[in-house]
Amino acid sequence: MNRLIFSFCVLTLTFFWIYHTAASGYNSPVNLIIGDISYVKKFGHLPAPGTDKNLRIKTHLAYAEKLLRKSETSYMNPQMRKKRKKSLDHLHDYWVAGAFPKNYNRKVLSPCFIDKNGNICALGYLIEKSVSRQMAENINKEYKDHATANMNSAIINKWVKENGFSKEEAAIIQPFYDWESDEPAKNKFASNW
Q: DSSP readout, 64-89?
């Protein structure tokens, strides 16, 4: 009997959660690894539907920078620590500037390495600054809308290792971007007149 009651409660809570998230227009998390913890820590709640996209990205990247600066690095040699610090300085400059790519390719929240306007993602920017724009563009050809954690690239893996990051830390840096339409907003009532 207790098992039946427990199952009923779990089922009821599941349906409630599904209804609540659908009714509230639940936002997908901005990062695959740490979700929206940055937003919750700064504002005390999850981002509401319609929350400014750039605010979510800036909040995430500022938090990622702070988190990674606090990470233990004493095991690294001085040159690797220096490269890591320089990359985190570049990350700071990147999120302060706020020139983020837009996801024009997929109608879901997803990564975008470099968009059609040349705007580059945070990890791509770090690679651009430490190696070259050409290397970032080469990565973009194969991994434009891939999560860092899913990029099976010798180039990325080498960069991550040489710059004092783990693959998980690189994935923490990478935000996901909402879909943007090329179509101008249309007044749905205009066609009725």
A: HHHHHHHS--TTS-HHHHHHHHHHHH
